[in-house]
Design goal:
Protein name: ABC transporter ATP-binding protein
Radius of gyration: 35 Å
Shape: elongated
CATH superfamily of the largest domain: ABC transporter type 1, transmembrane domain
Number of domains: 2
Distance between the termini: 71 Å
Strand content: 5-15%
Structural class: alpha/beta
CATH topology of the largest domain: ABC transporter transmembrane region fold
InterPro entries: AAA+_ATPase (IPR003593), ABC1_TM_dom (IPR011527), ABC1_TM_sf (IPR036640), ABC_transporter-like_ATP-bd (IPR003439), ABC_transporter-like_CS (IPR017871), P-loop_NTPase (IPR027417), Type_1_exporter (IPR039421)
Number of helices: 22
Strand order of the largest sheet: 6-7-8-3-9-10
Number of strands: 10
Membrane topology: Multi-pass membrane protein
CATH class of the largest domain: Mainly Alpha
CATH architecture of the largest domain: Up-down Bundle
Subcellular location: Cell membrane
Keywords: ATP-binding, Cell inner membrane, Cell membrane, Membrane, Nucleotide-binding, Transmembrane, Transmembrane helix
Length: about 575
């Protein structure tokens, strides 16, 4: 094993143990119960020796009843301690898993948008659900049982040495071989489980993508249902095969453990008989007590070895979980970030020499862009496909941070502003709005949880979607369906707009927000937006130029640079790129 690998494993072990640290006080009762159960368990064989060597040969019924009563008391106390220990450890284990799920989920929410564009959603779901779920047995049961068994092994080993050190050393001779087998099997299963979890993530991704509404529509309209079933079958077969391998790997080696534990009592009896024949001090009671202690030693020891294998197996899951937790956060809030009250927000926006390049790209997506957007004005950003319009929207919403220059709201660099202030300042409606599979009202209230029914209706009227919702049998209680498929593309955009209107932000960013609307609805919505835009800064990113003719300022982008700026009439008369775009759509 290399020094790097050894250090990495210790680092993971420290991180795993750190998960238990917040519950150290609650967990303190568990070792106490373990110690009590271990002492009680060790006392039992010594009581049995007295019964065999004293009470039975002498026919002392009173002594026999007393010793039997002690055995019953020991059994009862051990059972009670075990029950309390199980309850406490399970409760703590579930709390640790809860903390880990929340920690991973919260960390993922703060990763750069590029992480989500490059990662399958099914893979993310598998890490949170399957990987963390796979740790349940380890954290809630195995770890505690391993600690309990370890205390039993230590106490029993001491008792065996006290009882007869010669037979004890004979028993201990098999332990190094068992430990080596455990190490060998653990390495095999760790590698298999790592591959198994990758295939489970593939399976989760296949289910998420192919059984969504969009996936079903695509498969049926292209006649690829059988193809999808074949791919799912192959992946499921791989998962099943790896599951079998993960449980069967090292079974032949592990059978040697059971063999050694099974023949040891016979060898102990043989050794005891030999000692007696040689005239060495030895009693039948001592032999029986030793065999009883051997069972108390080796079956807990076998559980410890099995737990070691499970820990190595679980380490493959921890590696995957920590891999996500170690990914750098893309967007962070600086210490002492500026917080603005809604009353103090004016809606002034300024881009100063902004530059941005996507990771792995050959050139910048945005290069040296400077735009002044006075509060209350309407600015449109247009350009051919790939000119950087949507990237600019991402930067304005701080889904990415600029790599050069700065973006300011009311004179404050967006990186110096609290995230809560930014979300209060800016409302965004995208070309592909997202709706939860919940009611219309719940989707609207996602932006403002305390909004009244009257506020919902008012926002929907502004977005020209109230009549559509009101005509449904359940009105605003109607579920929108997976991905909002109950509604048309234009209706989903208007619902998303209503959701943003409900927040009443000083700055409104519309990224192709009317692309799915018909001409009549677009005209009605344009009138509504004109009314909404009063005393509000509006930034429209559009491909359909009919929506930006009345903008105070039109910015034309090409290959990430500003090539023209002005109002509609001046840009048309200039006969540049904007005039070409207008001509191509007429």
């Amino acid at each position: 094993m290399s020094r790097h690998t050894h250090a990495a494993r210790h680092a993971y072990l420290r991180r795993i143990l750190a998960l238990f640290k917040p519950y150290s006080l609650q967990f303190a009762v568990v070792p106490a119960l373990m110690l009590f159960a271990s002492i009680a368990g060790v006392a039992g064989p010594f009581v049995i020796r007295r019964i065999i060597d004293e009470a039975l040969p002498k026919g002392d019924l009173r002594l026999l009843l007393g010793l039997v009563a002690v055995l019953v008391a020991i059994a009862a106390a051990t059972a009670i301690a075990s029950t309390i220990q199980t309850f406490v450890s399970t409760r703590i284990g579930q709390a640790i898993l809860h903390d880990l799920r929340v920690r991973v989920y919260g960390h993922l929410q703060n990763l750069s948008l590029s992480f989500f564009t490059n990662t399958r959603s099914g893979e993310i779901q598998a890490r949170i659900a399957s990987d963390i779920g796979g740790l349940q047995a380890l954290i809630t049961h195995t770890a505690v049982e391993a600690a309990r068994n370890a205390s039993v092994v230590v106490m029993t080993s001491v008792a065996m040495l006290v009882l007869d050190w010669r037979l004890a050393l004979l028993s201990f001779a098999v332990i190094p071989g068992l430990a080596w087998l455990q190490y060998r099997i653990g390495l095999m299963r760790e590698a298999i489980v790592h591959e198994q979890q990758k295939r489970i993530a593939d399976l989760s991704s296949t289910i998420h993508e192919s059984l969504s509404v969009g996936g079903i529509v695509l498969a049926r309209t292209t006649g690829r249902l059988r193809h999808l079933l074949g791919g799912f079958t192959r992946t499921s077969r791989d998962v099943a095969h790896l599951e079998v391998r993960s449980h069967s790997a090292g079974q032949w080696e592990w059978s040697l453990v059971y063999f050694a534990l099974s023949v040891l009592p016979a060898l102990t009896l043989l050794a005891g008989a030999t000692f007696m024949n040689l005239g060495m001090p030895m009693t039948i009671g001592t032999l029986v007590a030793m065999i009883t202690l051997q069972e108390q030693l080796f079956w807990p020891l076998e559980e410890i070895l099995a737990a070691g294998i499970e820990l190595r197996t679980a380490r493959a899951l921890f590696v995957r979980i920590f891999d996500y937790l170690d990914k750098p956060v893309g967007i962070t809030e600086r210490p002492h970030a500026v917080t603005l009250s809604r009353a103090a927000m004016r809606g002034d926006v300024r881009l100063d020499n902004v530059t941005f390049r996507y990771e792995g790209s050959d050139g910048p997506a945005i290069c040296g862009v400077s735009i002044d957007i006075p509060a209350g004005s309407h600015v449109a950003i247009v350009g051919p496909t790939g000119s950087g319009k949507t990237t600019l929207a991402y930067l304005l919403a701080r889904l990415y941070d600029v790599q050069g220059g700065r973006i300011c709201y009311d004179g404050i660099d967006v990186r110096d502003m609290s995230l809560a202030s930014l979300t209060d300042m800016l409302g965004v409606v995208t070309q592909q709005p997202y709706l939860f599979n919940a009611s219309v009202a719940d989707n609207l209230r996602f932006a403002k949880p305390d909004a009244s029914d009257d506020e919902l209706i008012a926002a929907a009227r502004v977005a020209q979607v109230h009549d559509v919702v009101a005509s449904l049998p359940q009105g605003y209680a109607t579920r929108v369906g997976e991905g909002g498929y109950r509604f048309s593309g234009g209706e989903k955009q208007r619902l998303a707009l209503a959701r943003t209107v409900l927040r009443n932000p000083p700055v409104l960013l519309l990224d192709e927000a009317t692309s799915a609307l018909d001409t009549r609805t677009e005209r009605l919505l344009a009138d509504a937006l004109d009314a909404l835009a009063k005393n509000r800064t509006t930034i429209t990113i559009a491909h359909r130029l009919s929506t930006v003719r009345n903008a105070d300022q039109i910015i034309v982008l090409d290959r990430g640079r500003v090539v023209e700026r002005g109002d509609h009439e001046s840009l048309v008369s200039h006969c540049g790129m904007y005039a070409e775009l207008v001509g191509s759509m007429s």
